[in-house]
Every structure is written in C-alpha cells, then in structure tokens.
Input
Amino acid sequence: MTTLYDFTVKNIQNQDWALSSLKGKVVLFVNVASKCGFTKQYAGLEELYKKYEPQGFVIVGAPCNQFGGQEPGSEEEIRDFCSNTWSVTFPLTAKLEVNGNNEAPVYKWMKESQPGILGLKRVKWNFEKFLIDREGKVVKRFASTTEPKSIAAEIEKLL
Output
C-alpha cells in the first residue's frame, strides 16, 4: 500500500526531499499561492504549525501556479514572500502541479486517497488541504474556503 512516505518532491531550494523524513508526523499538505484571495491563510497555517509542531505536526506548503496564474514567482521569490510577508517557517516544496498531465505523483495519490465532493479527484483551487495521519495515510480533505483554525480539532485527534 502506498503512503506519503513513498514519495520524493523538490523542496523550495530545489533539492530532493524524501517525504519518508516525515514518518510518524501528522502532516497537512496545502497547495499555496502568493497572489490569491486565500493567501491570507498563510497566517492561520503558521499559527497551527507553531502550536502543534512540538507534538509532531508539520505543514507542507506546495506552491502551484495552475489556478489563475496566482503563483508566478521563482522559488526564491516565493520563499522570500512567505518569510517576509507572512513569517512562514513551515517547509515549502518547489513549485509543482496538482492537476493534469504533469501533476506531482504525491498529488495524484492524495486525490485518489481522498476524493473531493461528488467524488471529484481534481484540486479545485489554491489552499486546498489534505490531512495525513502518522501512518502516512490521507484521512481528510478540506476545501480552499476552510480556514486553518477550523482544522485544529481534526489535527488534535491525530496527535
């Protein structure tokens, strides 16, 4: 059976990042964008990360430019924006695609593990969230409109 730990992505520094390094942690995977109406969720995500990280929680922000071209910058520009504007300290991947022919394999797996409403597999917009348990399995999927703080109870159940 496939788990999160079977995948490797590029981190924001464009180096291979084996997600097996997250073994035993509760993970929230979020496709992010700098120029989106939901970009303000960076603040709530960082709050969650700071609160639960000591208990084994991590957020993975995955920059994606597939929705309205809302993540046009380079990895360096994205990292600087997240750090300087939102004080983001959780890890980020390099830009990746979450839908289509060039979708990242980890996203294909997450979408198949936890289809959206009406069984839809595609990610609908920026800031869609996938919650993964300590065994590396997707347990819940949240829409872009779901505020990070409203996920706290679900995270606590898994910690």
